[in-house]
Amino acid sequence: MHAQCSAANIVSKRHFRGAVKLIPSSLAYLTDIECDSGDCPSNMADSGSHDLALLRRVVVEVVEKACHLTSKIQKNILHEEVLKKEDFSPVTIADFASQALVGHILHQAFPHIPMVGEEDASALRADPKLATKVSDHVKEFIADISLEEVLGALDRGNHPGGEGTFWVLDPIDGTKGFLRKEQFAVCLCLIENGEVLVAALGCPNLPVDSALPDGEKGCVFIGVKGQGAAQMDISTKKEFPICVSSSSDASKATYVESLESGHSSHGRHAEIASALGMGAPLRMDSQCKFGVVARGQASLYLRISKTPQYIWDIAAGAMIVEEAGGRVTDLTGQPLQFSLGRTVGVAALFASNGLIHDQVLAACAPAEDSSHSCFV
């Protein structure tokens, strides 16, 4: 079942609707609504002001479109449409198409806001056949986009991050889950001077209701700074507020971790969970794990690795957990930093419902002292 939110955590939809301005004509492939003069996102970006309601609406619609695109590709992906990056992690035709779709739409709407994206167009420029396939998928959503515009949209994800205002996109988080036809996420957020203003996690294969694992699937988790978190059913567009679990006893709480042990240390996680008296974990790919903590399905997400975490793997999900009433820190209890560039500066972190956070910190302390020796 969905977590029951306290009155303090419930966010009325009027907060999100009251200031909604009209979506500009540059987003005609999202909606038929036109913008009034002065209300366009490009004008907003020029002035440095941010209409959070407008940003929320655009981000959710763009992520929803990317979910439809990636889900369609997932059903029919071929082996030759999967490449290996320098770190041997897989990248697919869907990663490229998703980033091109999102990047192009956001550039049209917010031309002065750069993007930190996981992919670029170098592989496509070296393989014209693959580039054409990616372009064809994007054309299903933006009919008049050219191949060069697709490649340009991919290459615009090369912003270094740091201070200032920029988008952060992971076009497919959990590519191995995507290839297994299991969990993956489209992750997008806007950061300004180290703070996430608005975020969305599109999880096409995640059950809408955790109590009905075989029921309807496909949801978008949404967070807006200071306005709480929500979940949208992709098929019906219905939204409801979400909040973290009310569990204050770690021994009775559920924790979630990556399905792939290469992304984080299952051994370290097991040590911490054992110290807390927790049972077996829930395992899944991608930032869907942040989503299940945000909606109260799990109370803890452990992510302990050897190398600094990339910002696109963390920022959107972390913000949504915090807006749902939870807490996200490193193993010493320090908040994450999103103004350091393309990483968050730490290799180990966790997200909790907040109520058990100090218990987890205490259990992490011994493991932190031997962080390199006990990674398995």
Number of strands: 14
Pairing-aware structural class of the strands and helices?
alpha+beta
Spans of 5+ residues with little confidence (pLDDT < 50)? Answer: 6-26, 28-48, 370-376
CATH class of the largest domain: Alpha Beta
Helix/strand order, N-terminal first: HHHEEHEHHHEHEEEEEEHEHEHEEH
CATH topology of the largest domain: Fructose-1,6-Bisphosphatase, Chain A, domain 1
Short recap of the structure:
The protein has 376 residues and is an alpha+beta fold.
Question: Which helices and strands occur, and which strands form pairs?
Answer:
Blueprint (H helix, E strand, L loop, with lengths): L13 H4 L23 H7 L4 H25 L5 E3 L5 E3 H17 L5 E3 L4 H4 L2 H12 L7 H9 L9 E9 L1 H5 L5 E8 L2 E13 L9 E8 L3 E6 L5 E4 L12 E4 L7 H11 L5 E3 L3 H7 L5 E5 L10 H9 L3 E4 L17 E5 L4 H13 L7
Helix pairs in contact: 3-4, 4-6, 4-7, 9-12, 10-11
Q: What would your notes on this structure say?
A:
This protein has 376 residues and is α+β, with helices and mostly antiparallel strands. The chain has 2 domains: 14-242, Fructose-1,6-Bisphosphatase, subunit A, domain 1 (Fructose-1,6-Bisphosphatase, Chain A, domain 1); 250-369, D-Maltodextrin-Binding Protein, domain 2 (3-Layer(aba) Sandwich). It contains 12 helices and 14 strands. It has helices at residues 14-17, 41-47, 52-76, 93-109, 122-125, 128-139, 147-155, 175-179, 266-276, 288-294, 315-323, 357-369; strands at 82-84, 90-92, 115-117, 165-173, 185-192, 195-207, 217-224, 228-233, 239-242, 255-258, 282-284, 300-304, 327-330, 348-352. Strands 3-4-5-6-7-8-9 form a 7-stranded mixed beta sheet, with helices on both faces. Strands 11-10-12-14-13 form a 5-stranded mixed beta sheet, with helices on both faces. Helix 3 runs antiparallel to helix 4 and helix 9 (266-276) packs across helix 12. The longest helix has 25 residues, at 52-76. It is globular, with a radius of gyration of 20 Å.
